[in-house]
Structures are given as structure tokens and as C-alpha cells.
Amino acid sequence: MASPRTAEPAQASPDYIYKIAPATPVPYMSEVEGDKASPILPPSGLDTSSNFIHMSTASQVPGTLGRFFQIDADKRNVVFLLRVKSRPFERQDGVLKWESPDATVCGPRPGEGLFPHLYLDDVNGEADKNGVSPMPEKQSRRLWLRKDEVEGAREVVVDAGDKGGWSEALKALQDWLM
Questions:
Q1: How many CA atoms within 13 Å lie on the side-chain side of 60?
Q2: Given Cys at both, which of 38, 43, 81, 161 links 47, Cβ 3.0 to 4.6 Å?
Q3: Residue-number span of the structural domain to which 85 is assigned
Q4: Which PANTHER family does the entry mention (predicted)?
């Protein structure tokens, strides 16, 4: 694989990045067990195939919803937005990378063309209470967020027949989605 090309000069990173999760399974599916925080949602198919966690900035969320979470006009459409502080991940070398959606171009955050991707390598000690790791053998990274890494979550709903779509549903979260 060719090495990623470096992008334009840096801009300040946002305080928060967001993971969009389908309504099933519901995030926060398990609580802290012992002294370890359990995963709050299993890896998505896209995260599994990419071997990193796809995230979005607040301004990228509407586009990501439109591209990957199609609305069925005949039923209730629900996703969760998980808000994650970006600073703790920036302090860890190589964990938060700003890349094109396919991870072929990387570099400092040059505007909204690059997306935040999390490369979490700390897979040791992540087994459940029965000693079973939720990560398949072929994966080398942790592909889920722990409860202690998520500052908050909000449900985003587009009911059957709503014409406004995700953009309209996000208006109620404009003060939270920053």
C-alpha cells in the first residue's frame, strides 16, 4: 500500500468529534464491569473493514448521515450521535488522524475535506467478564469506544413522513453539536 499523501497546512482541531451509530444496538449496552469500562457499541461493518473508527466533525455529521444512513420514508429512522472529546486522543501519538474517508490522504486538519479517524491500539485487557475478546483475531486495533471515552450521546429521529430529513432533525441539537 502506498503511503498516504500529506495534505494542506493545519487548522485548529475541534473540541469534539462524533461517532454516528445505528439505533440497534443501543449505545451504552453495558456498564462498567469491575475497574474496566465495557464497550458501548460493537464495531460497525465499515470500521471493521477499515480497521479504524470513522468519526465526523460537527459540520460533517449532516453529510455523513445523508451518505451512510438513508431515510426510509415509511418508518421511524433513528441514529445515535456519540460526542467524544478530541484532545485526549490528540495527546496520544498516531491515535487521532485527519484523513480522507478512504484514509489515502492524511495530515493536519485542512478544512472539512479530511475526517477524524481513531486508531486505538490498546486491545489488551479488553476481554469481557468471561475472558472472551469482542475483537476478531484478524483485527489489530480496538474498534469500539468505551463509556469513559464518550462525553454524551443524543438520539436523532426522523419519523415516517417527515420531509426535513436528517438536517431538520439535527436542528434540535445545534447547541450540543459543536
A1: 23
A2: 43
A3: 15-98+112-173
A4: BLR1139 PROTEIN (PTHR34129), DUF952 DOMAIN-CONTAINING PROTEIN (PTHR34129:SF1)
Q: Contact 120/143 with Cβ under 8 angstroms?
A: yes
pLDDT in tens, 68-119: 999 999 999 999 999 999 999 999 988 999 998 888 888 765 556 799 999 9
Q: How many domains does the chain have?
A: 1
How far is 168 from 62, CA to CA, in rounded Å?
Answer: 10
* Cis amide leading into 27 (omega within 30): no
The whole-number pLDDT of residue 141 equals 84
126-144 per-position pLDDT tens digit = 444 444 445 455 557 888 8
142 neighbors 50 (Cβ within 8 angstroms): no
Per the domain annotation, does 107 fall within a domain?
no
Q: What is the DSSP string of 121-139?
A: ---TT---TTS--SS-TT-
Alpha carbon 130 to its chain's center: 27
Give the pLDDT score at 45: 86
> What average pLDDT does this structure show over 28-46?
61
